[in-house]
Amino acid sequence: LGFRDVNLKFECVLPSASLTSAFFSDRMDDHSAEEWKELGNEKYKSSSFSEACDLYSKAIELEPRVAKYYGNRSAALFSMRSYEKCLQDCTTAFNLDPKGMLKCAVRGAKCLTALGQFDKAISLARDALLNDPRLETALAEKAQAERAKKLLSTSKEQINLCKWNEAAKTVSQLEQITGAPNFVQRLRAEVLVGQGKGQEAMPLCNSLIQTNSHDPEILYIRGKALYLTSNFAMAIKHFAEALRSDPDFAKAKNMLKLVKKMESTKASANEAFKNREYLLAIEKYTECLTLDPQHKGMNAILFCNRAAALTSISKDEEALEDCNRAISLDESYTKAFIRRAKVIKGLGLGTSCFLNHLSDQHEA
User: Fold this and answer.
1) Cα(161)–Cα(180) distance, rounded to whole angstroms?
2) pTM of the predicted model as reported, rounded to 2 decimal places
3) Which value, in Å, is the radius of gyration of the alpha carbons in the chain?
4) What confidence tens digit (pLDDT) does each residue in 15-46 have?
């Protein structure tokens, strides 16, 4: 039995010219195919996987219908996480020798699991089990693919319901099975952004955008991360670019509208403060605070700015409350501590209150 049709273009054919040329460029010399394979095995044992691939390719060039050479090269490719090329070699090896290359069917299923193609992985594991119903590796890979499929579905449900902490745990379990392929990195970045961890999400977003620069979902997630780090100008560019790729992308539309509104309202508040229109500044800072209560970093700045405006019209007690709110949102926000110290001094609350403030600042 060979692979059943799982829409992967499985054919018992010689390797394509492009695949062979990727590994075989040197002029052939006097080694036999078996000798090239043994040389490849030595490189494989020393974890020199790319060199091992080159040597296995030379064996394949000499003996293109020997299944084990494709099997050996597939093992090296798998170690390099070159899953699509590995799957191609696994297919050829298994079709050339279905009973002798069952391990290649299992390895092919592993590749599909790592690529997020869980239904196809399950199907390939079943193909191996048709040849040997008790093959433990095939049974284990089938179970892994089934579990990964369920975890993926669960994580998406949790993300849709904004259950970010639960989703983070589910994605971690999915990573343990699949490694960290792009589709899992995307989930991880989306969860981090949902948790408000924009700075932590940025490295993942940067990696994803390099290979998917026009993907609207990735542009949106990176835009959210930029927004959370208060880089509004770049966030706006990302949301706009996402909408160019997908004009009906509702989430990007909503975020673009929100960021523009927050940016303009904050600018109006700052301008009013500069012009000593403190009541107007307070009104605008208050309006801005209602736009996104989840943006802790920005709201800490807004509370601190509103405290400055309140102090300017001698509302020190209200200013102190705003300073405390700013610090509770961002305990590393030095400016809020400095402003609170000035307010405490202005209120004449005494030495003990000031010392408590200094203790809080030192801990932060």
Assistant:
1) 23
2) 0.78
3) 30
4) 554 454 444 444 456 789 999 999 999 999 99
